Amino acid sequence: MIMKSASSLSLNSNTSSSNSTVDTEDQQSLPPPQQPKTIYECIRLIYSRNGSGFLSSRCYNNFELNDEIFHAIRKNEAMSLFLQDGLTQLNLGDKYYVWEKQIEPGVWQGAITIQFNVTDFEYWFLILLVSQARVSFSQNEKVEDFELYTKMVSATFARELKHTVENDQWEAVGEAFFNKGVDFFTSRWQPLEAVLPAFPCKSSNVEKVSGDMPDKGEELALRRLIQFSESIKEIYPPGIIIWIVSDGHVFSDCIAVDDSKVNRYFQGLQQLYANLKPKNANPIRFCSLPEIFQLANSNFNNSLVADVELGHYLGTEIDSQSETCRKILVTSCDTDCGKLRQDITTKGHPRLALFRGFSKFMTEDLALHPKVSGMARKKFKKIVAKVAFEMIKRNDAYSNLVELMFPFHLRFSIHAHCNSGPKFGISLLSKTGENQCQPINSIDDHKEPQNTDLLHIPTPWHNTIVKIDDRDVYFVIKSKKVEQEIENGNGRGEWDPINLHYMFFSK
C-alpha cells in the first residue's frame, strides 16, 4: 500500500505544506519516525471544542492534556489544511497532527495524533472517528448539586444491576471511578450513556441453548435493562441510554456461528425490544460493527483491507460485509505486535491465565461442532488454541474500538469484574423481582437454587430458560440438563413455542 503524507491528501488547502512549524533543515536532521502498527496507537486525544475551550476530551496512550494544547490549536487554526469530507489537518510542532471537523456552527469534533505517514485507510478511519465518535454532548446551564444526582444513580446501579464478586472493589475504589463517569453527564444535565458489548448470537453448542434466535432469556434481559432505565429516570429526569454494541461479528467465525445467523439474531433482538419498549421512552439503542463503521454510507473501498488475513479455523459461512468489518477492526485497533504470543508462554503471566480460560471455554463450546468433533484429541486442542488466541486478539482490538467510539460512556460488562473500573460487571438476569430468574446446574437445584460456576455471569445466549411446576420464578440452565430429565422420566416437559422457554413438571 502506498504511504501518503496527510498534506498530500488535500483537495483544497488555504495554505501550503511549507507552513509547518518545523523548518526543512530541522526535519532532515530528525530520525525517521517509527511507524505504529495501527491508527489506534497513533491517537493521543479525542475531543469536542468551541472557540473558547474544550467541551469534552479523553486522552489515549499516556497522553497528558494541558491548556497549551487548546491555545496552540486556536493560534494556528488558520494554517489548517482543508481535506476531503470537511476534515482539516493542522501540524502542532514536530510531534502532533490535529484533525478536526465542524459538526455544528461554532463546534468542532477532533482528534490529536502523533505525526506519521497516513495511508488511505487511516485517513478514512480518521474521518469516521471525528464524524461518528460520540464525543460531543450539549452543555446546559450549570447544574446545582449534580453530585447528589450522581450518588443516587450510583446507589441505584449498585442495588439493581451490578454483579458483585468475591473481593469486590466497588466500595474501595470502583464507586468513585463510576461516579466520575456519571458526573460527566449529570454536570451537563444530559442523559447518562452506557455501552454494553453483548448479545452476540446464540451459542453453537446445542447442549446449551434451544435454538439460534432470541427467546425468553433475551426477553428477561431486555426487561431488566428497561426496568433499570426506568429506575434511573425516577431519580434523574434526563434518564439513561444503554447502547447494546453487539460483538457477534467480532467472534462469529471463532465460535462456529455463520455470519447470517448473527444477522438474524441481531434483527430478532431489535424486533423483540420494539415489542417491549416503553411507549414514551427509548432507553436502549443498538449497533454493531457495520453500524460503527458506517459501511452502508461511507463508500468504503474494500481494497484498503484486501491484504489483511484473518484466522478462520471452523469452516463457518462468511459474508463479505462481516469479513470487511473484521478486517477494519484489526487493521485499525489491533495493538498486539507479537506480545500476546510472548505473554502466553510466560509462566504466571495474567494473559496466560486468560488464554487458558478462553481455551477451556471453547473446548466446551466446540465439543459437538461437526468440523472438529471427530478430530483426534491432539489436533482438536491445537484448533482450540488457535481459536482462543484469535479471540483474545480480536477482543483487545474491539475493546480499543469501543473506547474510541464511546469515549465517555459508562462501561457495562457481562463478564465478572472486581468492579474497580473502568468496566463494571452486570447481571442481565435478575435473581429478585417480578421477572426473577435463578441460575441452576440441574433441575433438582430449583428448590434451593445454586450455581457453582462463579467465574461466569449466566447469559441468555449460553443457556436456556425453564419454568418448573408453574412457579412464578424462571430458571436459567443448560438445555441438555432439561432434556435429560425428560428423557430419564424424572418429569414431563417440552419447549413452549409461544413463550419461548421450557416447561417442566416434576413427578
Briefly summarize what is shown.
The protein is built from 14 helices and 16 strands. It is α/β, with parallel strands linked by helices.
Account of the 3D structure:
This is Dit1p. Residues 1-35 are annotated as: Disordered. By secondary structure, this protein is an alpha/beta fold. It has 14 helices and 16 strands. Helices cover 36% and strands 17% of the residues. Helix 4 (146-160) packs antiparallel against helix 6 (216-235). The radius of gyration is 25 Å and the shape is globular.
Write the layout of secondary structure elements.
Elements: H1 24-29, E1 43-49, E2 54-59, H2 67-76, E3 81-82, E4 88-92, E5 96-104, E6 107-114, H3 120-132, H4 146-160, H5 170-186, E7 192-197, H6 216-235, E8 240-245, H7 248-251, H8 259-276, E9 284-287, H9 289-292, H10 320-333, H11 339-343, H12 350-365, H13 377-405, E10 410-413, E11 423-425, E12 437-439, E13 464-468, E14 474-477, H14 479-487, E15 491-496, E16 501-506
Parallel strand pairs: 7-8, 7-10, 8-9, 10-11, 12-14, 13-16
Antiparallel strand pairs: 1-2, 1-6, 3-4, 4-5, 5-6, 13-14, 15-16
Helix pairs in contact: 4-5, 4-6, 6-8, 10-13, 12-13
